[in-house]
Amino acid sequence: MIRLTGKDEPGVIEALAEHIDRPFRARQIARWILHRGAQSFDEMTDLPRSLRESLSRTFVLDDPEIVQVVPSSDGSHKYLFRLSDGATIESVAIPDRGKMTLCLSSQTGCAVGCTFCVTGALGAGRNLEPHEIVGQYRAIIRRETHDQGPVNIVFMGMGEPLLNAGNLGSSLDALFETISPKRITVSTAGVIPGIRWLARLPRRPKLAVSLNAPDQALRETLMPIARRYPLVELMAELRRFPLERGRRITFEYVLIRGVNDSEKLARALVRLVRPIPSKINLIPLNSDPDFLPGFERPPDDVIDRFARVLRNAGRTVTVRWSKGHDVAAACGQLKGAHHAVR
Ligand code: SAH
Ligand code: SF4
Asked: 37: closest CA among 29, 45, 46?
């Protein structure tokens, strides 16, 4: 069987070419898959029945299976998916004033091993295939009712998207059929070759970089990958990153009590990011006593003070006050099945 989900329109049309004699039919089918999220040929009621039957003997339109949806009091939903090999991943749907943001996974675990991250504590997983990445979006959108406002996608779920650049690239091509590149954000721990790859894409999503510390020594203790891709080289790369008019790079900074939350470090952060058109997203740590013993979220007044230092220095700052915290739904603490259902 040949899978059509995860392909962009030219990919769908190419796969169908030998099986369809009229090209407009292939475009029609591509639209059913990419724009209307069709899961079967039966749904494609404007195709002749005989064609639907013959295609369904050769092609599949499957998505990862939803095994659990956990609602949160703030309206967000955490989705647990099972993949065909039994691996599990999580995604989060976060509705907000008519908009919908989906936090998607790119791998089944993460080899980067940041010390404050639950996905990192699970260790390396495998890369998700394009249909497994796009399938999270397709499956969630089918289930979520929202008032047809725009959908945003952030790759801030499980895994390091830029260590799965090939499949991420194919997935972006498919997603761009229905979502503008400016509504998609790829978040990276600072994989320099991946950032270079992103910089060369003809259609670029937005870039978010997880800094989490403003100096090399502290960053190494939190993010082992900093040894491989040092902060000076990372910042030099980001200064070269092509930005469309009005676009900025987002710097993410997980605030960890007593570790990286001092005013001195806030001032160092200001100096570090100043040369780059950017905004800073402060993420108070989502704690998990089982997986992240000893890591705590700072008290609110410490978070406020840190944000104030940045704002007073003219930086644009947002504080992510724990979206979906009560179901462990916030990005950065997704861990898949064995651990999620306790
Ligand atoms: N691997 C990519 C994307 C997935 S992690 C990256 O690191 O950017 C998405 C975000 O969640 C990152 O900014 C990361 O710093 C943050 N994060 C990780 N663990 C967290 C935790 N325990 N609490 C809050 N945010 C966390
Ligand atoms: Fe991987 Fe990102 Fe977690 Fe680091 S923060 S371990 S890169 S998922």
From this structure: 29
Domains and CATH numbers, the chain: 2-60 (1.10.150.530), 65-339 (3.20.20.70)
Q: How far apart, in whole angstroms, are the C-alpha atoms of residue 32 and residue 39?
A: 9
Most distant CA pair in the chain: distance in Å?
Answer: 70
Across the range 310-331, mean pLDDT stands at 74
- The yes-or-no answer on residue 90 being catalytic is yes
- Give the residue with greater pLDDT, 97 vs 7: 7
Cα of 261 vs centre of ligand 2, distance in Å, is 19
pTM of this structure = 0.95
Q: Is the CB of 198 under 6 A from ligand 1?
A: no
> What's the average model confidence in pLDDT over 106-111?
96
Task: Indicate if 9 belongs to the active site.
Answer: no
Residue 168, Cβ density class (10 Å: 0-12 exposed, 13-18 middle, ≥19 buried): buried
User: Which ligand gives the minimal distance to the CA of 286?
Assistant: 1
Question: Is pLDDT above 90 for 97?
Answer: no
Pocket lining: 158 vs ligand 1, CB cutoff 6 Å: no
Mean pLDDT on 160-187? 97
Residue range 20-39, pLDDT digits in tens: 989 899 999 999 999 999 99
Residue nearest to atom 18 of ligand 1 (CA): 332
